[in-house]
Amino acid sequence: MRSYLVAFGQRVRITHHRLGRWAWPVWVSSSAVAVVLFNLLLVVPGPGGIRSAANMPVSTLVYDMRDRPVFNIFREHRTLVGLNQISPHMLRAVLAVEDERFYRHQGIDLWRMGGAAVANFKQGAIVHGGSTITQQLARKTFLNDNKTFWRKAREIVLAVRLEWAFSKDEILEMYLNRIYFGRGCYGIEAAAQGYFGKAALALTVDEAALLAGLIQAPSAYAPPSNLDRAIARRTVVLRRMQAVGAMTEAEAASAIKAKVQLRREPAQPRFGEYFRNRVAQELVDGAGPEITWTEP
Fold it and tell me: Number of structural domains, the chain?
């Protein structure tokens, strides 16, 4: 071991001598890069942790003694579904507006990031992130929404690792199940049921475009309180779908004119909040939090 350290020290001295006046700048910059990379590896999950992106809280449906459904309990109101249980209109709408080149990049889209960087430079602030669907999934799963360079760097590292761990279809499925659509709805199935009273598979193109438009800013676009904004955003999504070839001009024009028919507000629940919370606590105590909140 001692001989190895001596040999290593000699190589360092030789390298330092060859670099001449550039020696210290090279050593300092190399050390800085090493520190950054080391910290990036520390703050992202390990090989087992990255697979946890597939785990997310779901709703638990409670039945009465006659096997009749009575209410849901949840941390996040979510029902997991596969891609084959989601309307193709929804898939095309999300890809068109959120990540057109999703199936052609490896987690990061340099062209999209370059455009966002130019826009941020012109505005003098970090406004546009240029994030791909994979980056958004990484952020929603492991990070936060703070617009900082450090968070962006970690997001990129995690996105690449997600692409190594999962197929494209798996990533898109996880994204659509995890993303928040407003009004307490997490995931596309809860959103389809919450806004339109139907399964995600049954969404029409205008309904899918409206939901896809909510992803950018649910609190700003979620109907019915922001119905005009939601309709305007829906138009943006439909025009984007037309631009990428996901629908014809005539189809887009027809969908733009479609009337928004939201699900009626549900009736007052039959059971009070205290009773629901007590049932939830009994389930957690008896079955454990993992089964109660995360088992589909």
Answer: 2
Q: Does residue 162 lie in a domain region?
A: no
Long-range pairs, 210-217, Cβ under 8 A, ≥24: 210/234, 210/237, 210/260, 211/90, 211/93, 211/181, 212/90, 212/93, 212/94, 212/96, 212/97, 212/98, 212/237, 213/97, 213/237, 214/181, 214/182, 215/94, 215/97, 215/98, 215/179, 215/181, 216/97
Render pLDDT for 254-279 as a digit per residue (tens, 0 to 9).
999 999 999 865 544 555 555 555 55
Q: Are residues 246 and 183 in the same domain?
A: yes
Hey, CA dihedral for 134, 136, 142, 146, is it positive or negative? positive
Residues 6+ apart with CB under 8 A from 17: 23
Determine the pLDDT at residue 183: 84
pLDDT single digits (tens) 143-182: 877 777 777 888 888 898 899 899 999 999 999 999 999 8
Q: CB of 275 within 8 A of CB of 57?
A: no
**Tens of pLDDT along 8-53?**
556 656 665 665 665 666 556 666 565 556 555 555 665 567 777 7
Domain span at residue 30? 2-43
Q: Which of 287, 277, 285, 286 is nearest to 75 (CA)?
A: 277
The dihedrals phi and psi of 106, each to the nearest 5 degrees, come to: -110, 40
- Tell me if 119 sits within 8 A of 128, measured CB to CB: yes
Dihedral of alpha carbons 65, 66, 71, 74, sign: positive
Share of the chain above pLDDT 70, in %: 60
Q: Is 189 helix (H, G, I), strand (E, B) or coil?
A: helix
